Amino acid sequence: MTNIDIEQIVKQVLEGMATESTGCKNGACKCNESANSIPKTSRVAMLTELEHYEIKEYPIPELGDDDILVKVEGCGICGTDAHEFKRDPFGLIPVVLGHEGTGEIVKMGKNVTKDSAGKPLNVGDKVVSCMIFKDNPEITMFDLNKQNVGGADVYGLLPDDDVHLNGWFADYIVIRGGSTIFNVSDLDLYSRILIEPCAVLIHAVERAKTTGILRFNSRVVVQGCGPIGLICIAVLRTMGIENIVAVDGEEKRLEFAKELGAGNVVNFKDYKGNEALSEGVKEAFGGYLSDFAFQCTGSPIAHANIYKFIRNGGGLCELGFFINGGDATINPHFDICSKEITVVGSWVYTLRDYATTFDFLKRAKGIGLPIEKLITHTYSLDKINEGHETNLAMKGLKIAIINQ
Ligand SMILES: NC(=O)c1ccc[n+]([C@@H]2O[C@H](COP(=O)([O-])OP(=O)(O)OC[C@H]3O[C@@H](n4cnc5c(N)ncnc54)[C@H](O)[C@@H]3O)[C@@H](O)[C@H]2O)c1
Ligand SMILES: [Zn+2]
């Protein structure tokens, strides 16, 4: 037998396998089917009243030509989910939540060929969705591979629809044509679940860079070591900033801050009053105040305190208040004016930041940052209420729902 014969045989076998697995004879969709392995119904975790999800089962609908059916592998619990679970501030109940989700495409309409960045999409690819804020011209796909996807849907944040498969706390989700979706098959499951919160920090660092103060050799203080502050440290470290001091009151979190790249840590509980604390921060930098600071707590007191950690002419990125956390008292003369501090705010992210985040996660792993350890607890879908309770009790960092 010649090499050519062998190649022919292998080709025939592979083609045979491909035809067998493309069991769906319906020309209107592409599926790997496995079509018979897609169930007729899907479970969703629906928030039906405050602090209570109910597992409900709904039919998986016929897909439109532009739609995608994704088998959910996992989804992180976000602060927004926690607010909704506890208070339903926007009156969304009943609602299927979960927007930090990821899964595998199991079926797609015949028109679907590419993701929102122009990357090919196929059955078997791992994907994430993304929220779009269409009213902000910066937040557009136009800069990303010169495409502009408007009219995108948002998943896991909006009131329930008649199909019900519109949130990632579920077994399956239907992604409608025109939605923002990215092929992230080259990332592992935990990295994919962490994309959304990490994008918040990619954006914050981009905002910080606009001040012109943040440099490779800057002394940077990160206040607050919840997931947001910890990811902030990892992003700074991954972009080459080495001189980072983390401030928090929880020793365990401070220890993790070191693993993620903080060179030194300060426990604010060890200091009486902000003067002493700022001395502690100065000491942690070897006798200098910071050039730049990131405020990553939702505490107005922390906001008021942070100015004292920054040198004259330094910068501050305030990103700790995703929602209104109340007023903070500062002295504009001493804290901002006479020190000539440049302050920027940062809220959510742009689509461009989202794409940058995929590479950040690869680079973070590449330099050995244990980013996946941010996911401290996992629960199956039917234990989602417990997952939320663990989250509210602040027992872990990132809690995720993982489907078997
Ligand atoms: N800008 C955005 O788009 C955006 C997005 C998501 C979250 N957030 C905000 O970021 C904040 C942090 O999120 P998280 O998930 O990390 O929350 P978290 O509650 O898990 O973490 C906050 C951390 O701050 C610490 N802390 C509290 N007071 C402090 C003080 N005075 N000094 C130093 N540390 C202090 C706490 O011990 C805790 O570890 C939240 O308030 C959230 O609203 C903003
Ligand atoms: Zn989120």
From TrEMBL:
Cofactor dependency = Zn(2+)
Where's the Alcohol dehydrogenase-like C-terminal domain? 227-362
Q: What class of enzyme is it?
A: oxidoreductase
Q: List its EC numbers.
A: 1.1.1.-
Highest taxon above the source species? Bacteria
Q: Pfam families from the xrefs?
A: ADH_N, ADH_zinc_N
Supply the InterPro entries for this chain. Answer: ADH-like_C, ADH-like_N, ADH_Zn_CS, GroES-like_sf, NAD(P)-bd_dom_sf, Zn_alcohol_dh
A GO molecular function assigned to this protein is: zinc ion binding
Q: Domain Alcohol dehydrogenase-like N-terminal, which positions?
A: 64-177
Q: Does the keyword Cytoplasm apply?
A: no
Q: Which UniProt key words apply to this protein?
A: Metal-binding, Oxidoreductase, Zinc
**Protein family:** Belongs to the zinc-containing alcohol dehydrogenase family.
Which PANTHER family does this chain map to? Answer: L-THREONINE 3-DEHYDROGENASE (PTHR43401:SF2)
Q: This protein is called what?
A: Alcohol dehydrogenase
